Amino acid sequence: MCSTARQGALILALALAGGNAAAASCAESPALPQGIAQLYSDGLNRAVLREGDGRFWRLQAVGNQMVLEPMERPADPPLASDDALPDTLISTGQRDIRRAWLAGPTDRYRHGVLGDAIEATTLRVEMADGRNLEYLLDEQSVFEDRYPRIVDLDGDGREELVLVRSYLDQGAALAVFGVRGERIELLAETPPIGTPFRWLNPAGFPDLDGDGKPEIAVVITPHVGGVLQIYRYGEGVLTPTWRMEGFSNHVAGSSELAMAVVTDLNRDGRHELIIPADGRLILNQVWLTSEGLRVWRMARHPDPINTAILAGDFDSDGRLELLYGLQDGRLVFCSL
Question: pTM to 2 decimals?
Answer without folding.
Answer: 0.92
